[in-house]
Amino acid sequence: ICKHLLDKPFYNDFERGAVDSYDVTVDEELGEIQLVKIEKRKYWLHDDWYLKYITLKTPHGDYIEFPCYRWLTGDGEVLLRDGRAKLARDDQIHILKQHRRKELETRQKQYRWMEWNPGFPLSIDAKCHKDLPRDIQFDSEKGVDFVLNYSKAMENLFINRFMHMFQSSWNDFADFEKIFVKISNTISERVMNHWQEDLMFGYQFLNGCNPVLIRRCTELPEKLPVTTEMVECSLERQLSLEQEVQQGNIFIVDFELLDGIDANKTDPCTLQFLAAPICLLYKNLANKIVPIAIQLNQIPGDENPIFLPSDAKCDWLLAKIWVRSSDFHVHQTITHLLRTHLVSEVFGIAMYRQLPAVHPIFKLLVAHVRFTIAINTKAREQLICECGLFDKANATGGGGHVQMVQRAMKDLTYASLCFPEAIKARGMESKEDIPYYFYRDDGLLVWEAIRMFTAEVVGIYYESDQVVEEDLELQDFLNDVYVYGMRGRKSSGFPKSVKSREQLSEYLTVVIFTASAQHAAVNFGQYDWCSWIPNAPPTMRAPPPTAKGVVTIEQIVDTLPDRGRSCWHLGAVWALSQFQENELFLGMYPEEHFIEKPVKEAMARFRKNLEAIVSVIAERNKKKQLPYYYLSPDRIPNSVAI
């Protein structure tokens, strides 16, 4: 072992923000290098040092890369192996086996599971961002300060003058324009102009920011006693409602999950309300989806009427607003928080606990969990905690969102995260039948590109199914996800272990797709679809109507969020829809954890496939007044980081 001090003469080494490279020449013969050790001594209070990699040039002129991409803090040391990915079976030398074991022992002490709320997927054991291991913290905590970002967003949108005006209603729908930033020719402007139309309402279930609820209705539920007579004027094929169901033209969205959830009571001056609607939709002769019946609560009865397009304008409009508000709640807490953020965090913690840095699956996944644990920790600290920002404007704040996640856990299954299966399970797979479902079309293209890529990487490192089965580190990773993430629920369908290369490649596709594409599809459209408040009210200030013919426009405006809540909501959806400063998009792997040629070639093919998808989507969008671009790979970040 020979030590060398990294020091340039007459140079201020290791300045904050500086990027330097150092050359070290060794004269003595060192033999085959197994490990390189970097030590750091502590001199100043904050003198953390980030090391990208070390390149070794051998006497024969070969170059060997030792990737690091980690922080050295305090009196720290890091032992690095060269960049060739190795399974445990490939390590025969004692020192390498020991290094592998020690790394996991250290990581398991650093990355501990914790139950944030009963029944939730477990999360990282850290009270706040600065308690996290340095390697997974944000570069600057300022960038992800929710309080700061939301307030900044309100300033940017010039709406901060309203931010304290709680309890103060708007005067009419047009009044909402005071806080609405008109950017012409954008989706948000179209929403503002057309939100009251049934076509726009129906379209959002396919291509809005919560395109995951609509399903084909195979039989009318007993709890929705709707008859042909009621909806006759909406049906265009001279068929009865039952026949339309049989022909596959009827769709349903059921917000049963919201039934009995406690509404926000954190502000004694404002009563807030929730509903649990059932919405029936129809595919008309133009193949567009439109609503034909809405019941605002689960149990039918005289005080729970079925609202229809043939009702008075205000009745029908208010019923649709209740559905949009319910959709917003399920979107934020289940589709977005639980099914992308919390699930990705589980994959990230399990990866750090069970896969050493030299493992090919660690190298593959590390880019797809970047900053996820950090953003979630920050959210638990500021956003979704008791008295957090979420309570300010949301009817499910003050604990309702916690109850929702607890309920939704039973539907969090492995199959529901496999994109093609999830689409099929809702009866939404046919392109001929449902031609305008762009979330499905683009999602399938991206899923397939990721699947081909993971299959290639798996093929490079696992020459047979048996090698997969015998990789104990890999099996421990899967088991961690199952036991701690899915809480050991058999019904989750999450595999405790995988037996074949194909199964492994599908599992990795789930991990990468959820962190990248699924999150992008449900996150970055929030400003587009939710900034026009009447189209996505985060709270309602009067209970759902129990009779027809009573509601006035004034009452509707008084039911919608007040000025203060509207502002906080707008700040949130704006901040959440922004990309990070130096965002890394799908297929971008600037950190070279892999050094072997076959993987580099697989990555290049992956990028090429993604570029082809970008072109296909751009071509389709050219002709569209409402383009769908959330699943275009050049807009899909690699990981959940906002």
From TrEMBL:
Superkingdom field: Eukaryota
Keyword Cytoplasm: yes
Principal subcellular localization: cytoplasm
Domain annotation Lipoxygenase: ranges: 86-642
Record-linked Gene3D superfamilies: 3.10.450.60, Lipoxygenase-1, Domain 5, PLAT/LH2 domain
Record text on cofactor binding: Binds 1 Fe cation per subunit.
GO function term, MF aspect, one: arachidonate 5-lipoxygenase activity
Enzyme Commission number(s) of this protein: 1.13.11.34
InterPro entries xref list: LipOase, LipOase_C, LipOase_C_sf, LipOase_CS, LipOase_Fe_BS, LipOase_mml, PLAT/LH2_dom, PLAT/LH2_dom_sf
Essential for stabilizing binding to COTL1, annotated site positions: 71
Assembly notes: Homodimer. Interacts with ALOX5AP and LTC4S. Interacts with COTL1, the interaction is required for stability and efficient catalytic activity. Interacts with PIK3R1; this interaction bridges ALOX5 with CD40 after CD40 ligation in B cells and leads to the production of reactive oxygen species (ROS). Interacts (via PLAT domain) with DICER1 (via Dicer dsRNA-binding fold domain); this interaction enhances arachidonate 5-lipoxygenase activity and modifies the miRNA precursor processing activity of DICER1.
Protein name listed in UniProt: Polyunsaturated fatty acid 5-lipoxygenase
Organism in which the protein naturally occurs: Rhinopithecus roxellana
Species classification: Eukaryota, Metazoa, Chordata, Craniata, Vertebrata
